[in-house]
Design brief:
The complex is a heterodimer of chains A (67) and B (261). Chain A has 67 residues and is mainly β. In chain A, β3 and β4 form a beta hairpin. The longest helix of chain A has 7 residues. Chain A has one domain: Ubiquitin-like (UB roll), CATH 3.10.20.30. Chain A contains one helix and five strands. Chain B is globular, with a radius of gyration of 21 Å. Chain B has one domain: Aldolase class I (TIM Barrel, Alpha-Beta Barrel), CATH 3.20.20. Chain B contains nine helices and ten strands. Chain B is an alpha/beta fold. In chain B, β9, α7 and β10 form a beta-alpha-beta unit. The chains are: A mainly beta (67), B alpha/beta (261). The interface between A and B is medium-sized, with 26 and 38 residues. β5 of chain A pairs antiparallel with β4 of chain B, so a sheet runs across the interface.
Chain lengths: 67, 261
Amino acid sequence: MITIRLNENVCTLEQECSLQEVLLREGYTNPCVAVAVNKQFIPRVQYINIFLKDGDSVEIVSPMQGG
Amino acid sequence: MWQLADQFLSSRLLLGTAQYSSLAVMKEALMTARTEVITVALQRQLPAKNGGELFWDSIKSLDCHLLPNTAGCRNADEAVVTAEMARELFATNWIKLEVIGDDYNLQPDPFELVKAAKVLIQKGFEVFPYCTDDLILCQRLVDCGCRILMPWASPIGSGKGLINPYALAMLRQRFAHITLIIDAGIGKPSHATQAMELGFDGALLNTAVAIAGDAVKMASAFRDAVIAGRTAYEAGLMPERNVAHPSTSLLDTPFWLQDVS
């Protein structure tokens, strides 16, 4: 079992999973998002190659109104 | 037309998209302003909220250039990652670089700002740094490759207008070939006009329009104010004088010199 954080929410996984699998599993199906893992930007094309490890922190962002 | 980074634009008014009473009001205000550049931001998404989709759909239909910001970032590292996420999400290399150093007046942290700007320019971004009117800070930003500077008029959302017109005029004088956009603290259309009369290339604001009693009407007021200020700058303002000077020539007016003894 490993524990990661998704937008500061604790999430438990049975084993290391790809970022893509985790996003789908946790309901982040909106294509209009961008992701950083451990404060490093992850391009969309790499979601399938990045495997999350225990203690990883994932930030998932979407567009919002801003000034 | 004028050039902003790699784009040629008609409007010199750039508007934010936050704080409007509804997305419908936001859209109408942006269209009324005839703005061609709008600022956007990033937020953490929750899966249940389908965050951002409604807003995204709204702004796509406006056909404006998007200027994502790094609001909320407090150091260069956070700003760089936020910019990279924004580049992918909004498909633009433009970034309004905000690195806040003080919670009370939201003043930019000049040291982290320069540090972030250097990295982002190396990564191929067109950096629009939100900065103070400090001449040396602006010089450092230009030295690291910024082609655009966005000094504040006064703190974000304060509506105080140009608190240091001297410093802003000095920036115009010293950075003749840099695009200058007044950003933050604009509360009234006359503030925007004042900045444009100083020779600023554009004005970026949000709150003054968004929280106006009638946001759409205020958008039109700012549209006209920016045009008026720019037109006046191009026309050439008269120099300020310390003594009165009659508008009407007194020579040969009735009673000319009669009372002189």
